[in-house]
Amino acid sequence: MNSPVDPARLSISVPAAAPVRTRLKGLVEISTEHRVVLALAFLVIFPWFAPYEALAVNILVFGLFAVGYNLIYGYTGMLSFGHAALFGLGAYGAGIPIAKFGWHVLPALGLGILVAGAGAAMIGWFATRTRGIYFAMVTLAAAQVVYYIAFQWVAMTGGEDGLRGVNVGVVNLLGLHLNLLDPRTKYYAILLVVGLALWAFSRILQSPFGAVLEAVRENERRAAACGYNVRRVRLLAFTLSGLFSGLAGALYGIHLSVVPIETLHYFTSATVLMMTLLGGMGTFFGPFVGAFTYLLLADVVTVITVHWQLFVGGLFVFLILFFPRGIWGSLMHWAER
Amino acid sequence: MKNPAPILRCEGVGKSFEGFTALSDVTVDFFADRLTSIIGPNGAGKSTFFNVLSGTYRPSVGTVHFEGKDITNLEQSRFAHIGIAKSFQITNLFPQLSVHENVRVAVQAMHARWSLWRPRAHFKEVVEKADALLALVGLADRRNETTENLAHGEQRALEIAVALACAPRLLLLDEPTAGMSPEEARDMMKLIAKLHETRAVIVVEHRMKLVMGISNHIVVLHHGRLLAEGSPDEIRTHDEVRRVYLGSAI
């Protein structure tokens, strides 16, 4: 004989789901409020479970690059195919003074950021006159111009062989002697810079200008009617994105002790776009998740087959079709519902 | 009694699109103390005229002056700064942003649009002004809702709040009651009449009853030309207007 269902039990079990949802929502709110601290806390412990330090540094650097790219694509809605130029300008901008003129790493980093920012302002000045696919094409063309200049200017950039001799070694900073040849020290030294960049990035997102970026992404016509010069907003966003991308590039050169010409290749532009989409565009931590997924897959699958891009491509298509918000974006969306 | 000078003056305004003339030689003065409605049958050129007045289109010929200043070729984004705001015919908001954020972003355009560092929540006067505007259009209780979740009538009201964010001296409204139920349309017209107490208002509208009820000046366009202008009574008894609107209630 079937025993009747106890209604009292039902009434307990149904609302039990609600507090879980509320708790999840609360967690999302807390994680949004303290996003920089939480991101840094994760990145601090990251080397302990990353396969090896060099990969962890790559994830850190490309995560920052994707954060910079996310500013323009995820938050402002501008699809750029030319961000390799900004990444590469940062790498060469910091690498050349170190390799050719023996500069200290800090001013070299600053110069790398400035060169990338100036490059972004120049490319953006032309590109922001266009929209959509035309914008993407102008950025791609500009990046190719930068690539060929670096390719031909062998005396300064090393041309096809890349820029060698970006050796930093021991850095004296506020009385500390940081040996960047030690992988773990290098990771934390780069994390310090990435942490400052994330803090600045978060400030920009929270600022009135951060709201303008979202408004322009949502509705350019309305933003213009509200009194915003949309072209100027897009140009400033592109330049800011260039500063973050340039910093990532500069850190990449310091990490590798060499600036490969591939940093300027359009494949690098496609890589950062894929990382951003994999992680979740328009989310704060998504770019790091995207960089982690992409680079880890590349690292693991390469051992099995040289056609690792086939696997990354497959995952990319799967996510775009079924989880267009990306890995982190989908998780956040699910928790927020 | 009329103001001594018009707040907006259009002289010989025309607009052509690749050979098609949508608007031709329209000369009209708009005064600050009037609620002016622009009417006309379909294809009369109302929307083109509205877009010229609000800066979306630059006229092919003619000039537009606001408070004596030539604004014929002014950038769209400058209109809000000189005191002209508009609402669109098709609801035009920031759909993924919250209701409050829609208005706050619009208010912010007049205060701190290039601030990159200070958190937006610290701009208390901007937040408070946005809240006051939401209260004015009756959306205070929908403050934190995502805009795309609002009902159509609420979105139209939000459009008005966004337009008011720049504290305009001239408010241009393109079919503010489009898609609304008769009750919602009446409420909207009441709101527009209230807004007119403190600023000049120009409305493009096709609901004749409502237009006649709230306007104190009407401009009639037909085939892209000015057909008539005057008080509602003058327009109601105007032979040419009656002929154009034959069969419709004026």
Q: Looking at this structure, what is the CATH superfamily of the domain at 1-75 and 203-250 in chain B?
A: P-loop containing nucleotide triphosphate hydrolases
Unreliable runs of chain B, pLDDT <50, ≥5 residues? none
Low-confidence stretches of chain A: 1-14
Strand order of the largest sheet of chain A: 1-4
Strand composition percent of chain A:
under 5%
Mean pLDDT of chain B: 90
Radius of gyration of chain B: 18 Å
Remind me, CATH topology of the domain at 1-75 and 203-250 in chain B? Rossmann fold
Encode the helix/strand succession of chain A as letters.
HHHHHHHEEEHHHHEHHHH
* Sheet with most strands of chain B: 6 strands, mixed
Q: Which topology of chain A does CATH recognise?
A: ABC transporter involved in vitamin B12 uptake, BtuC
Helix content of chain A: over 70%
- CATH-scheme architecture of chain A: Orthogonal Bundle
Q: Output the CATH class name of the domain at 1-75 and 203-250 in chain B.
A: Alpha Beta
Number of H/I helices of chain B: 9
* N- and C-termini, Cα separation of chain B: 25 Å
Number of helices of chain A: 15
**Number of domain modules of chain A:** 1
Biggest interface and residues each: A-B, 25 and 41 residues
